[in-house]
């Protein structure tokens, strides 16, 4: 949902700049700029992908409202009389999991980190007798479910660790 900016450093006497992109979804696309004609061109790119500034001054790429479909390879090629210069990127998209903590029918605490990318890690404060399972989804996200099987009755805390952040919740079943 955030914007992502991929920097391509301008060089003196640029004759051409091309961004070649291969996102996971939507197929390859490209943005190009030719200095001799002061002309830009786009091929098969969604509206969310565009030049951040004027490409003759700064060929930085901006992707608005980044989603999992944008993940993939992005390469900027700057052409100058001395040669071609490539700046490659691989865009990885993180998705924060949705955290839920509840008591199951047997009174066991269950901690769920739903639809995160990559899979979240779940641990429990002062507890180590738990089971965990992961379920992958078609969009590349993963739901992790952790259930305590023996616990103190006066409450426990679930801790979810993820590259996008860390969270905790407490419950007494």
TrEMBL record:
UniProt GO cellular component terms: external side of plasma membrane
Name of the encoding gene: Cd200r1a_1
GO biological process per UniProt: regulation of neuroinflammatory response
Name of this chain's protein: MOR1A protein
Pfam families: C2-set_2 (PF08205), V-set (PF07686)
Domain Ig-like: 59-172
Keyword Transmembrane helix: yes
Similarity field: Belongs to the CD200R family.
Source taxonomy: Eukaryota, Metazoa, Chordata, Craniata, Vertebrata
Alphabetized GO MF terms: signaling receptor activity
Keyword list, A-Z: Disulfide bond, Glycoprotein, Membrane, Receptor, Transmembrane, Transmembrane helix
Subcellular location: Membrane
Membrane topology: Single-pass membrane protein
Coiled coil: none
Highest taxon, organism lineage: Eukaryota
Keyword Disulfide bond: yes
